[in-house]
Amino acid sequence: MKFSTTRHGASKWSRLAAVAGLTLAIAAAAVPQAHAAGEEYFPLQSYRVGPYAAGGSGFFGGFIDYMRLINKRDGGVNGVKLTWSECETEYVVEKGVECYERMKSGLNGAPTAATNPLSVGIAYATLDRSTSDKIPLITINHGRTDSTDGAVFPYVFPLQLNPYSEVSAIVNYINQQSGGLKGKKIVVLYHGSPYGRETIPVLDVLAKKYGFELTQIEVPHPGNEQGSQWLTIHRINPDWVILRGWGVMNPVALKSAQKVGFPADHIIGNIWSNSEEDARPAGDAAKGFISITTHPSGTDFPVLQAINQYVVKPGDGDLKDPARFGTVYYNLGVVNGILNVEALRVAQSKFGDKPLTGEQVRWGFEHLNLDDARLKQLGAYGLVQPLKLSCADHEGGGAVRFQQWDGQQWKIISGWVQADRALLRPIIEKSANDYAKEKGITPRDCSKEL
Amino acid sequence: MSSSASLFLVRAPALRRLPLRSALLLAGLLCVPAFANDYWLNAILIPFLILSLAGLGLNVLTGYAGQLSLGSAAFMAVGAYATYNLVVRLPGLPLVADLLLGGLIAAAIGTLFGLPSIRIKGFYLIVSTLAAQFFVEWIFTRVSWFSNNDSSGVLSAPKYAVFGWQINSPVSRYLFVLGTVVLLFAFAASVVRSELGRRWMAVRDMDTAAAVIGIPIARTKLLAFALSSFIIGIAGALWAFAYLGTVEPDGFDLNLSFQILFIIIIGGMGSIGGNFLGAAFIVLLPILLSHAAGVLASIGVNVGQLQNLQKILFGTLIIVFLIKEPDGLARLVQIARQRMRDWPLSS
Q1: What is the pTM (predicted TM-score) of this model?
Q2: Most exposed: A294, A335, A375, B153, by fewest CB within 10 Å?
């Protein structure tokens, strides 16, 4: 008796499953063929759900809106239209790898220009693949620090600011503010992920060099519980706390700091603790919180005005909440769009005004040279720092400005503070060479690269 | 567990045809690289095979020996980190030896965390394996020696070769994984049909009765933990070396343990082939859903909402499925086969 009921139930269910599966398969097969050749493809390993959705939706929103602007206003880059598709990663490495593999071979004949996963974990997992598939891997303001050395990592670009430069600039700022670092106590509170742990050794080096007392404390991912960490900080009673957070970890840190009575204006957020979404949810506790940025928030830049005019006003903007237009994450997406598009443009000057392969776009990234004049033409003066890349240097900038949260918005409180790149360079080269040895890579000779 | 026992009995006559069928399947899998592109190999088939293997490991423990565990990802991590350290620190050793030793180290750790199973069972045992899960993740994060002092705590797999054969392309990685998986499946299939396998099932079905007929309970349970962790550990090493190429401790989180548990629940407890079915379900369905979502997104449906819808759909499918067929996909396949055989005579 039992057998026959199971059997009936199963048959009904299997029919249902077959129908559902068939529908899905047909839907998946019926990918629209709207795009034609003559386009350049940007695969977007985006994330719009999960604990880091605020970062993902803002960044990819800005990136997409900038590409829309280029298509609408300029008709593409020298006539080559930009196209893209999204694949949700949820910031999960396996999903990011699946998305990478799914999208790497281009879209309907449009070649892949570069990947921008905005996740250190995914960047690490697709680093080898990017190199063997010859597709540039862009990790703006984050990534694997030693990939700055383009001789070992030809296809990886930690544009503008790598993690070592980031902490070095913060330490320099603290040095300025408190007139010397000798004997000062600094706590670094970092996210429990490859991104968070990236700077542990270089901070030790800096502590030794400047003679400050350093404690590094890890917060497990995603970081919504930090009571014990902040009690430790309370006990240490440091002069400064450097917050290397990400996503929900940041507002929680600010609130927990308030609970133990640590002043927000002695907490310095790093490049991923610097958005409106990091400060605003903490309410009062965020007032006075300082953070670094490579690009100010705001909508006054001509390029943002143009996006507003051509994309957002006609109703084509990517943001669901229009109030996020001009925020830190969104503007970073725009900056990232500018750098990708300019790299394509530079590459076209060598290879011709046509869709280019990842290998050719890589040449464009490596010869990117944005000076003040060019930035003014782009309407991004003050939004993007001057940037000059080369075979040996895949970072380029290395400068940050400091901003302070006034309860409503970020106010810039410093000029450009430069990282101590000369001090960092030997550490980066050593690490890159170790990597090359482990992987059996022969570094390029940068003096021979054109 | 009575249904699994009957399942076993029903399948017994079919066993004679098993070698033929396995050979056909293997031949098919060997032909795959001729048709599949990089995407299929790298993003679908390799994780599918490795998760099948992890499912097999857990199935030995849970499906055959009846010991519940939520520490699978931890044992995968042990296997991955152990193999990595052997490769880096003892460069003279061939990779196959590294893999085996990595598996043995995972087996030792698994046995250690299996010790409480002598005294406790069921949900209480889950808690102790859960402790393994958190402890292992913690120690690999904490002690940077395990990741060769990498600043980010990330392992990146060095270049490797098996008997002089460089494993560096999607096809070679696939074949390497396939070879390992086939060997371990054959090994596990023969073990569960041996005396030891029968002891496991006796312990699973009623440990008091098993003790009465003279089965040494503690040793039987620990052997299940050891073999299970050995297989899972090798799966973890493959996950690190052949699939992602890089791992961090967080990659082996509780989520992965749950995924492996779902694989054996959906595929079928106490079934060898069911692990493939369960892994296919867990790997393929989300990708299929995500492809379908890509189509919907291109006609203007909000991407973020689609993502949440996918999760809801996936969860609902699992629940509906478990209500309709608690014995898993393996059982469904068996029913289908039975009906095919009866087909012209009964509808």
Answers
A1: 0.86
A2: A375
pLDDT of res. A10: 46
Q: How far is CA B312 from CA A164, B14, B309, B318, in A?
A: 41, 38, 5, 10
List chain A residues with pLDDT less than 50.
1-10, 26-36
**Cβ count near B91 (within 10 Å):** 9
Is there a contact between A131 and A152 (Cβ–Cβ < 8 Å)?
no
Q: Does B290 touch chain A (CB under 8 A)?
A: yes
Q: Which of A245, A126, A268 is nearest to A184 (CA)?
A: A268
- pLDDT at B33 (0 to 100): 80
C-alpha to C-alpha distance for A256 and A176, rounded to whole angstroms: 27
Instruction: Say what the pLDDT of residue A152 is.
Output: 95
Q: Which domains does chain B have, with CATH numbers?
A: 2-249 (1.10.3470)
Nearest CA in chain B to A84: B298
Which DSSP category does A110 fall into? Answer: B
Task: Domains for chain A: give ranges and CATH numbers.
Answer: 39-162+297-399+429-448 (3.40.50.2300), 164-293 (3.40.50.2300)
pLDDT at position B346 = 63
pLDDT at A31: 43
The pLDDT of residue B13 is 46
Low-confidence ranges of chain B (pLDDT < 50): 1-14
pLDDT value, residue A450:
63
SS3 A219: strand
Mark yes or no for CB contact A94/B47 under 8 Å: yes
CA terminus-to-terminus distance, chain B:
29
pLDDT at B12: 47
DSSP string, A130-175: HHHHT--EE-TT-S-GGGG-TTT-TTEE--S--HHHHHHHHHHHHH
Q: What is the distance in angstroms between the Cα of A96 and the nearest Cα belonging to chain B?
A: 10
To probe the interface with A, which of B244, B266, B329 has the most A CB atoms within 10 Å?
B244
Q: Which of A12, A22, A86 to mutate to test the interface with B (most CBs of B within 10 A)?
A: A86
